[in-house]
Protein 1
Amino acid sequence: MPHAKTRIGLLGGTFDPPHLGHLAAARAAQQQLGLDEVRLVVANDPWQKSDSREISAAGTRLKMTQELVKNMSGLVADDCEILRGGKTFTADTVEEMHAKFPNSQIFLIVGADTAARIHTWNRPEIVLALSTLVVVNRGSSTVNLPEIPHARVEHVHMEPVNISSSELRDKVRSGVSIAEFTNNAISQVIVDEHLYTVAS
Ligand code: ATP
Ligand code: MG
């Protein structure tokens, strides 16, 4: 039976670059929770990272994310954080989605590493009030979330994919192929735009 409300998944990230771990996490959540769509939301300025390393241009990360979800039913790349500009706060995004899709239920999909840091976000109470938190294992690591009052939490298990964007950037820098961890179109953007060639 169809769910009364549209069920929208949000998978936020830097996507620098997008990889098959992101895709597998989105698909696992989509299938196990019966989500109508999963939006891969590309951070404009991931403020917890941007002080410590060079982040690729937002437009380039969006283009690569569009390539990741191309021809994948129910998965879309979302540019709302880029259009909003400035530092990216997931609380703003969840509020915006809530206003834009009032008749929907929002599922915020996070890997275990990200879930463990949610208390460090800007206004986590808003995020948790307006969405159901979906925690996906990251590789073999799972997380025991601290008790968060009023949070709605779902756990999704995926076949572990042991890869991160950091590792892919390191591989590109070292001249090692990343073909098995992402798709050809993304590899091509990385080559064409000379991404990850200098240490940062
Ligand atoms: P970086 O190494 O630069 O931090 P990343 O691979 O962690 O990159 P992000 O863009 O930071 O990618 O991740 C976005 C979201 O996807 C986060 O919630 C993260 O936990 C999740 N995620 C990333 N890779 C995986 C993976 N291999 N398995 C499960 N979840 C993942
Ligand atoms: Mg990360």
Note: The longest strand covers residues 6-13.
Protein 2
Amino acid sequence: MSITQITIPDLGGANDVEVIELCVAPGDTVAEGDSLIVLETDKASMEIPAPQAGVVKAFHVSEGSTCNVGDLLADMEAEDSAAEPVAKAAPVAEEEPMTAAEPAVDIAPVVAETVAESAPVASAEIDMLVPDLGGASDVEIIELAVAEGDEVAEGDTIVVVETDKASMEIPASAAGKVVSLKVSEGSKVSQGDLMAVIQGTVSAPVAAPVAETPVAATENAPAPAPTAPATPVATPAAPAASAGGKVHAGPAVRMLARELGADLSQVTGTGPKGRILKDDVHAYIKQRLAQPVAPAASGAVIEQPPAIDFSQFGEVEKVKMSKIHKLTAQNMTRSWLNVPHVTQFDHADITELEAFRKGLKAEAEKRGTKVTPLPFMLKACAMALRKFPQFNVSLDNDGEHLIQKHYVNIGVAVDTPAGLVVPVLRDVDKKSIWQLSAEVIEMGAKAKDKKLMPADMQGGCFTISSLGSIGGTAFTPIVNTPEVAILGVSKADMQPRWNGSEFEPRLMMPLSLSYDHRAINGADAARFTAYLGKVLGDIRHLVM
Ligand code: CAO
């Protein structure tokens, strides 16, 4: 195994160039052409690629340090130690390595010499022309950094263009107001094309290109380095970071963002001067994945259906949605879009339960209350949540953990004129049927009188949505996230059931258990509803 010492290549004459990013760590395996570090002068940033495949053993530079041509950059162990050791790396754009023997690319737009010759002139409309793009033509505009009407400072990026070798920010050479933009994202431009018209005080009529990565020389072609426009320019090239909060990222980072679908304007840069690093893009994507998906109503997730003027079909009226209605719509959409739902259907034979419940009527009246099947459902679900703790979890946002709850709070969906609300009953497993009956009545009344406090609707582990007093044979409730399951209860109905020798009438209550298939599997769901059927079928189990 041979160790190759990689040195800093010719930096186009620049000295004391700052290392702004180490792209790999010691121990990392890199392919030939992978970026090792990113350097930044006051005019351009450049990535120094590995001249060969291998393992990075050590760096001799660190972030924030400065370096010059010939300085030791890193030690690398060649992947194939028999291969000819490469002594020097050359600065390249993206993927096209330049041999050390070739003349160095002049990475900086040559503009400074002309500065003194230009004097500011009075307010005027200035045509911002596309400067020399290092010989490249028909270059794609990948980003418009300003909009018409924007005030720009001198040096602010107007557009970002990208060749197959480098991306460049083209800055404004003067401060002023963007009167009109003459290009759009995706359009192709060449030197001399009109980009924009700026109204302002200026000293020269063209912009200077700022190379984010020097355009590389190739074996056969001279380096198409961005050079000074033919006409004199007033200002030295701006640093790659543009003022005004514009995106400040190198081409490799831009490419990564495009591959991952990251909007760089949303990414927080942690590099020097707010520069966006690859790690920032990865962190942003990770955070986005962990976030609940934005409601579709915002248009952020799925395309909105087209707006229709219904008045063309008949008389209409626009009715304002209540706050609860809007919140419910958002919550339902979020759950529907995020949760892979499955619904398990079953029946519970509540013939005996109903006989028992009806027998409680006199005592209930004495206590000033009423017992419906719901408190029994609550109690049975609480027992099922204890027996099947995988139903009493929430998925952690990190995508790697479940939050196991050791308390049993159950929400009850209540339909009110103002909308659907879900008050939560606490510690259901520890309460009697009498207590639960009283709480259901109290919570239902509070819900209808709009007296529920936010705390009354928080902390649920599981929800019951009962349509039993209304009708229906089954439905598919939507999981009340961050819970992972919800039980829908439909109207109990007398049905003929085969008891082994004959059909007999039994009161069957339909159960519809919707669950988050990321947390619960189908077999568990079937066991859960079967268990509910067993407990409700013989309520002596409730005291076991
Ligand atoms: N099968 C057959 N009958 C049922 C039943 C079922 N699954 N569930 C309840 N019933 C009966 C009750 O026994 C009661 O009849 P009796 O007076 O003859 O005993 C009648 O239906 C009315 O019950 P209720 O609705 O007053 O009480 P509840 O405990 O079932 O429900 C609450 C409580 C708060 C949910 C209720 O007050 C309510 O608002 N219900 C409306 C339905 C609703 O909003 N559901 C939410 C759906 S939103 O997804």
Note: The two ends are 71 Å apart (CA to CA).
